[in-house]
Amino acid sequence: MIAGLNIAKQSKQTIVGLAQKRFASDLIVSQKTGRTLIKTGSGGRSSSNGHVITVFGCTGFLGRYLINRLAREGAHVIVPYRDEDDMRHLKIMGDLGKIIPMEIHLRNKDSLEAAIRHSDTVYNLLGRDYETKNFSFADVHVEASGVLAELAQKHDIDRFIQMSAMNADIDSPSRFLSTKAEGENLVRSIIPSATIVRPSFMYGQEDRFLARLAMSRGLSVRINGGNTKVRPVNVSDVATAMHQMLDGNNTVGETFELVGDTEYTYKQLLDFIKETTNLDIGDVNVPKPIASLVAKAMNLLPWQTLGADEIERMMIDDKLTGAKTFEDLNIERSSLEVTGIQYLRRFRTNLYNDEPLKKGVVGKKKTFHTSYL
């Protein structure tokens, strides 16, 4: 997509009284649009790598990790937001003037176009875990993705990177996964060179995966007997992969399935959480119909809860389809069993907070480290 120009000349540019050498390697030209990107500075957040990047869905879980990687290389990052409070923490991730907030609304096409018109790359991380009275899965995953792709095509965007989900399938019983697949197909029909990213359940400091399982404390509810197989992936690894896709020619028009290095059942994950947190978590298996009814009732509460469609997803095993993976990006994945304690330690009581994860007896409680490799 982007190729360096092999020019031997060097030039000097005076900036604020200082002479700065500019090499041919500082100049890259897009093969698709002919747009010229010029790097300045010696590298880092106070320099510029020439990119102007819009990250939709930047206020979500993955967004902050991706923006951190983009901004520390000097990219100008446009941060579309609906609620100003949700994006305040993103401002400090780049140098002064590099993080550019812009208020948008998904049903206001002019606001979306304003956030795209000056960019060379668009990341679409928009997604919903549950439906609301204002936005359905189709509104966000399909309609919004199509509008963004059309606008990107209109303004000759070099790269369009679409966030999907592991197990996305038109025929999936999960409406979340079926609309994710519809969104993939729509984006590809508009921009054949778009890159599709399908991560598994992501875990990290602010996740809704490990945290939800650990927060159950006294009692954990199992769906499908805890036998569903998943490959949870570290959110930092996914952000690193999506960052590499910015300039990676081998990612154009490709689909990537980003999963962790180990397959677990939910039962094994609960056992790991019990061991890591030193909490006595009981468990009970709840039939899917009952769990779905309870989830629908809980959605009447004014705060976010487990949705009925999430119950459906908890019944579906992670299955690789032969798409590209971390190995194609030369990224070594983090291990949950090595890094998990970083995210789960906060759920320990003060009695066990500083205890290492090891075999033996911790206080009056036995803990056994079980490897699922």
List keywords for this structure.
29% helix; alpha/beta; 7-stranded parallel β-sheet; Rossmann fold
Explain how this protein is built:
By secondary structure, the protein is α/β, with parallel strands linked by helices. Among the domains are: 1-40, no CATH class; 43-199, Rossmann fold, CATH 3.40.50.720. It is 29% helix and 21% strand. The protein contains eleven helices and 20 strands. The chain has helices spanning 61-71, 84-87, 109-116, 137-154, 175-190, 210-214, 235-244, 266-277, 288-298, 308-313, 336-344, and strands at 2-4, 10-15, 18-23, 27-30, 36-38, 52-56, 76-81, 99-103, 121-124, 159-163, 195-199, 202-203, 219-222, 229-230, 233-234, 255-258, 264-265, 282-285, 360-362, 365-367. The chain has a seven-stranded parallel beta sheet, with helices on both faces. A three-stranded antiparallel beta sheet has the order 1-4-5, with no helix packed on it.
